[in-house]
């Protein structure tokens, strides 16, 4: 795999919207590009959204065209379930050790689904944040690219494995598949490693887990998505009640030195967006938004004005710092209204924690020679050919990620030329 | 709506220098008011106090009962997303309040800064030393005398049957000190009460409670609450502090009783029955209470000492002279007192006399600086708790509307 040495090839780590964009921009001007993702699919967080900014499109809209471009471009080589093991060398000639975890399903797979029907074991559906279960051999989601099943071998009994193998008429299932290490030589590396939703159990006072009525904003996206666990219905987990009232808890973990010190940038807009999901389904529901400040940058200000005009929505300046599970399945959120100076105990049927973005790369990035700031975001060093893109660089919406990824590609192709 | 805020910059500087240096980090998210276990639904704190302090609204804060109702559990500080340490800021505002209401102002100011430590120790040291000189008692007794009289002849001895020389000189030092302390506390608390009444918009009382009503309905329930540590028990982040404060408070009550008993027997009964003078037998129930009290005092303040050090190491509290001065003073009283007693029992008069001198200094410091140091919470917080009851009582709130 060293056929690209000295040709200005680019490695893009992370195959979400940012990584895809950077990879395509670099490839479409003629550079060889490797794009890897640790998931068994490309599309990252955007794939999990119901709709996304700026135009509130469903994710199929933006992702499909990018997948099309990748399929049509012979310069891009894609690797799912693949992670970086080590980075050596220098700008213009990095030698990167990669490792692909076994998928146990080879490229013969046509995604016919016969294996899943035969499989008797189930696992929590990680794509839906565990809100439903899926067979242990599964297509990660309905528009997954590559369109190929993946097997969670450890979750399967041997009988189930045999049944799965027998069901596949394309000989696509290989339970003996091993992880595969390989090396690529590239001129520069684009880190588009994205983000994870901040773990809500870390805010002990918000008591995530004490009641199924407390969900996160990403869970809300999955619930509202037509391909989600509820088929697009917003129902209270546990008892499937149609909620009559909702509370949004802004800055759940963000702007908090005990958790994420920074503003996650998207959560206010995500909440406004999710208010539209609620309104489409429940025109009469009460919505309470508890916030410190509402941050709606640039043109999004108009979106805020529109949603704040909602007569059945209340906006309370004061952070929710306690949530109490109630016997009827609802929760009471507690905050001080900083405008009136009174404490509020608001009972609601469902509560959405607007959790923020935790950079996904983590400490291991330093071992790869990546510069990171105190919060774990990648600091670009174009001279070194180490370039950050999207939410690996700073919290951002998809629109801004598109810009930063294109910029990253432009910097990446200048190395080794 | 426009608002004309006139910040008192000196006040802000004062708070920042007295342990509230994190004040300006607050961004008013109000997490603190919710996690505070003592904050009520109608009058939540400390979020509002934080913004008042940022704006330098001194007048609003010195008359705000919430400042005194705060027990510095530290739950707010633990959950504060900005490291603004509301608990420490309110502590610094309390320190400021004692100085603000302190009388005489010079003494109050003196007792508020660590750099004045030499003077703060020097004042009682010099006074007691001079009195000791004047008394002419400055001779180290023989072993036999020391065993018989203990420190009873510290200020010498005369054969007036009606007032022992030692008692006379001790009273000469302590009684004016206590009188000044009580008067200063009375002035301060009265002024605070008035400010709180103005701040709460209480205005003219519907009818004024009599002294008896005030004690029975407002003060006594507060005292019961204090002794039972009802509010302390609600603290979460700093729950261990009660283990130190409770023995300490009980030891103060015990030692207060012992002192009153001694004053009565030695200073009053001693006039008629001279044999009342001299050290008590170790098996006298009052002496046992005194010794238990002394040990409880040292243990209690020791726990608070360790607790505070740990909080500071964990970054959950700021190191301030205000907090430590009281701990040092009480530790000083306890250690010198117990050491003096032990030295008496083993008969080392020379060292014993020096330690006893130090004991008198530390006791005088505790009394003299009570109204201006953290010790002032003893009266200010008690009356703030009484005011909280008053504010919601039928004296000022017409129950019919």
Description:
The complex is a heterodimer of chains A (417) and B (401). With 417 residues, chain A is of the alpha/beta class. Chain A has 3 domains: 161 residues, FAD/NAD(P)-binding domain; 54 residues, no CATH class; 158 residues, 3-Layer(bba) Sandwich (FAD/NAD(P)-binding domain). Helix content of chain A is 22%, strand content 25%. Chain A is built from 9 helices and 22 strands. In chain A, the strands form 7 sheets. Chain A has a 5-stranded parallel sheet with strand order 3-2-1-11-22, with helices on one face. In chain A, strands 13-20-14-15-16 form a 5-stranded parallel sheet. In chain A, a hairpin with a 2-residue loop joins strand 4 and strand 5. The longest helix of chain A has 15 residues. The mean pLDDT of chain A is 95. By secondary structure, chain B is an all-alpha fold. Chain B has 2 domains: 93 residues, no CATH class; 287 residues, no CATH class. In chain B, 65% of the residues lie in helices and 0% in strands. Chain B is built from 17 helices and no strands. The longest helix of chain B has 35 residues. Chain B is elongated. The two termini of chain B are 29 Å apart. The model of chain B has no long low-confidence stretch (mean pLDDT 91). At the A-B interface, strand 18 and strand 19 of A face helix 2 of B.
- Bin the helical content of chain A: 10-25%
**What fold name stands as the CATH topology of the largest domain in chain A?**
FAD/NAD(P)-binding domain
- Beta content of chain B: under 5%
Give the tally of β-strands of chain B. Answer: 0
Number of domains of chain A: 3
Helix fraction bin of chain B: 55-70%
Give a quick precis of the structure:
The complex is a heterodimer of chains A (417) and B (401). Chain A is an alpha/beta fold and 417 residues long.
Comma- or semicolon-separated keywords:
heterodimer, A: FAD/NAD(P)-binding domain, FAD/NAD(P)-binding domain, 5-stranded parallel sheet, 9 helices, B: 401 residues, mainly alpha, 2 domains
